[in-house]
Amino acid sequence: MSNNSILVVGGGFAGITAALEAAEVGHEVYLVETNPYLGGRVAQLNQYFPKLCPPSCGLEIQFQRIKNLKVKTFTMCEVESVTGTPGAFDVKIKQRPRFVNPNCTMCGECEKAATTSVKSEFDFGLVDRKVAYSTHLFAFPQRYVIDADACAPGEMDAIKAACPYNAVDPDDAGNTFDLQVGSIIWATGWKPYDMAKLTNLGAGKLKNVVSNMQFERLAAPNGPTGGQILRPSDGRAPKRIAFVQCAGSRDENHLNYCSYICCMASLKHVTYIREKLPEAQVVVYYIDLRTPGRYDNFMQKVAADDKLSLVKGKVAKIVECECKSPILTVEDAVTGIKGEERFDLVVLATGMQPSCAGSKLPVELAVDDDGFIIGGADMGVYAAGCAKLPLDVMKTAQTGTGAALKAIQNVVGR
Ligand SMILES: Cc1cc2nc3c(=O)[nH]c(=O)nc-3n(C[C@H](O)[C@H](O)[C@H](O)COP(=O)(O)OP(=O)(O)OC[C@H]3O[C@@H](n4cnc5c(N)ncnc54)[C@H](O)[C@@H]3O)c2cc1C
Fold this sequence. Notes:
Bound molecules: flavin-adenine dinucleotide
CATH superfamily of the largest domain: FAD/NAD(P)-binding domain
Strand content: 25-35%
Number of helices: 8
Low-confidence stretches: none
């Protein structure tokens, strides 16, 4: 007999949507997420279109529904192996140690006691975080995490001693457990293309050349600058900002496809700048601006900004001057003129790469040359969201709903 339970791997918008759709009609749903928080990449944005609302809007409602519908959620977990057949899978899940037990009240005393800092993954290395940390408002469950590998000798003991609630557990060894499910939804999303590979554009080494996701963090109220757009090198407000579209995208040496969302993301970033730096000059260098469907209206609105220039041109090189200002070598595709332009801050519109690209999946799934999942349905495994192809949030949610429907058919129709 088929097992009616459904496993969703990945707690971003696609996974959350799929989990809720399946739970809504009475299926037992397990949601497994590798981070200590839910929400995926959307949680790292300042605002998201089409409505330009903060991530909390939308996600908070989803989290409430996850609780109400009793979706069994496991964070800091990954799938280790999948055996069995469609309708009767046995899935081994590995949970990393958190070193903090349910006594935690998020009081923050452990963070104060920690002395070692490492680069914050959540803020894409723009700032450091302590080894005892809470990633985000959306930490799930609401508990601190201790990064034991990065602790200095004796530091874990000092952190434990500082906790007033006896919530620090240095002996936590993690956990491995099995889940029996009938269908699996794979919604592991995307990662930003690695700037270090863009050697002609500074290879991620120029302080005032940031990625589009770093720019999201710079503009976010819970980001490293409290939402002020400042140059990473000296904390000054930039007066001239450039965006380089297709940074590594549509390029056979890097990502040989369009990530669909980057033009819209940069236009959205122009709205952040206009709100926070009303006098700043902005130039967007593009190959062609892609704002599909109704997004064209957004483009027309943003393009009316008289301090914004949209320049059809390819940025060939970025270097920096002594004061760390980036200098772009750019060829204007309309006039044919090649020249140098100096800016205070440059944003590289890097594309979305499937998060599983380059790694071996614990379940046999067909992927294309870029790592996007293109198969699995015949085996009772259904891909959703950006694990499948580059998408915006709205379409991501639609694929989550579609995957849930297929997963339900797989267990009910047997
Ligand atoms: C600069 C930029 C700005 C953007 N702004 C917007 C916007 O304003 N509006 C909009 O509509 N879209 C925007 N997008 C696109 C948006 O980020 C995506 O549509 C959305 O993140 C897709 O959700 P997802 O759930 O498919 O993937 P993700 O958000 O990547 O979520 C996937 C989840 O799976 C988890 N995961 C990964 N691997 C594993 C594993 N092995 N095991 C368990 N869990 C795993 C991840 O930790 C993550 O939580 C933007 C994209 C970029 C690049």
